[in-house]
């Protein structure tokens, strides 16, 4: 791999010819400021031609220099790549070993912290966990934590946190123990009170059952007497009800016969009135029936054209409808 350094003259690549120098441009500006196309048209044309030639020449010069600069850029990129490879060839082996050491140290540190965190986790007792422990377990845990010594060498920078966690757990367990002992005392008192109340309740229930038995015997005797009296009243009421029912039946029978007689007389009167009405309307009925027949029998002339036959057909339909209407009205009113 070559270690030679390539030198590039950037000053020559960006320098334009003398006709484009600052002095030449200032002279061009000064010359242009003295030209007025309205005063000397030809002189203005000559100056414009001069400027055009300068511009086209500048563009050609720019392209040549840009091509040279691009070529120099490619040379520069290649030289930078070569130098970078030389540096990386020296750096990477050392860098890889350092990375291995850093990784191993980070892993060892993470493992150390993990073990400490696990150890701290064993000396943390939450209020919820303490509240769910049996009383004897709370006492045992409290004794264990009170005897526990935090090792500064093992816990290192977590030493103070471990001490704080141990002390907090002792406080939690102490509170839980006081609460559980108070709860046990209250429970014992409640059990004693419950036993006393149960005894009193049993005595009360026995007295209550004895009184209920007496009340049941008294009610039974009263119910037997009441049943006897009720049976007597029921027999008397039955005799009254039977008599009343007999009278009601006889009354309904009389009313039924009277209704039947009235219905018979009304039907005979209606039949007689209907017969009389039919007799009175018989001439009109006969006339209407004859009218219907005459309408149906009416003869219509025969036509030659389709138009006329359609009219005759419509007339026949209307005559039939008229006859049917007369017949329906006769059936309804006569």
Explain what you see.
The radius of gyration is 67 Å and the shape is flat. Helix 5 packs across helix 7 and helix 7 packs across helix 8. By secondary structure, it is mainly α. The chain has helices at residues 10-14, 22-33, 41-122, 127-132, 135-147, 152-155, 159-297, 306-333. It has 3 domains: 10-106; 108-218, no CATH class; 298-333.
Short description:
This protein has 334 residues and is mainly alpha-helical. It contains eight helices and no strands. Mean pLDDT is 84; it is low at 1-8.
How far apart the termini lie comes to 138 Å
Series of H and E elements: HHHHHHHH
Number of helices: 8
User: Helix share of residues?
Assistant: over 70%
Question: What does the radius of gyration come to?
Answer: 67 Å
The chain-level structural class is mainly alpha
Mind summarizing the main beta sheet?
none
Q: Which strand-content bin applies to the residues? A: under 5%
Number of strand elements: 0
Global mean pLDDT: 84
- Count of separate structural domains: 3
Q: Residue ranges: pLDDT <50 for 5 or more in a row?
A: 1-8
Anisotropy-based shape: flat
Give the tags:
8 helices; single chain; mainly alpha; 3 domains; 334 residues
Task: Set out the fold topology.
Blueprint (H helix, E strand, L loop, with lengths): L9 H5 L7 H12 L7 H82 L4 H6 L2 H13 L4 H4 L3 H139 L8 H28 L1
């Amino acid at each position: 791999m070559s270690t030679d350094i390539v030198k590039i003259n950037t000053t020559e690549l960006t320098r334009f010819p003398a006709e484009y120098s600052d002095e030449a441009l200032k002279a061009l500006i000064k010359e242009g400021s003295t030209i007025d196309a309205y005063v000397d048209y030809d002189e203005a044309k000559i100056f414009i031609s001069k400027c055009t030639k300068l511009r086209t020449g500048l563009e050609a010069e720019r392209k040549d220099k840009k091509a040279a600069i691009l070529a120099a850029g490619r040379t520069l990129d290649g030289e930078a790549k070569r130098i970078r490879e030389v540096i990386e060839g020296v750096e990477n082996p050392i860098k890889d070993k350092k990375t291995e050491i850093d990784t191993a140290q980070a892993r060892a540190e993470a493992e150390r912290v993990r073990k400490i965190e696990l150890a701290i986790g064993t000396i943390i007792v939450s209020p919820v966990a303490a509240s769910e422990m049996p009383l004897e377990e709370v006492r045992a845990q409290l004794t264990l934590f009170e005897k526990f010594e935090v090792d500064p060498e093992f816990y290192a920078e977590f030493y103070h946190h471990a001490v704080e966690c141990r002390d907090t757990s002792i406080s939690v367990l102490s509170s839980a123990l006081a609460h559980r002992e108070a709860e046990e005392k209250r429970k014992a008192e409640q059990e004693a009170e419950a036993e006393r109340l149960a005894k009193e309740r049993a005595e009360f229930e026995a007295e209550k059952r004895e009184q209920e038995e007496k009340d049941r015997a008294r009610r039974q005797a009263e119910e037997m007497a009441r049943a006897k009296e009720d049976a007597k009243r029921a027999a008397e009421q039955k005799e009254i009800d039977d008599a009343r029912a007999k009278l009601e039946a006889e009354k309904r029978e009389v009313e039924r016969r009277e209704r039947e007689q009235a219905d018979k007389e009304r039907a005979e009167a209606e039949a007689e009135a209907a017969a009389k009405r039919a007799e009175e309307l018989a001439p009109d009925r006969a006339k209407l029936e004859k009218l219907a027949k005459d309408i149906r029998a009416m003869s219509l002339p025969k036509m030659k054209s389709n138009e006329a036959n359609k009219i005759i057909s419509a007339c026949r339909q209307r005559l039939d409808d008229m006859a049917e209407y007369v017949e329906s009205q006769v059936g309804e009113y006569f």
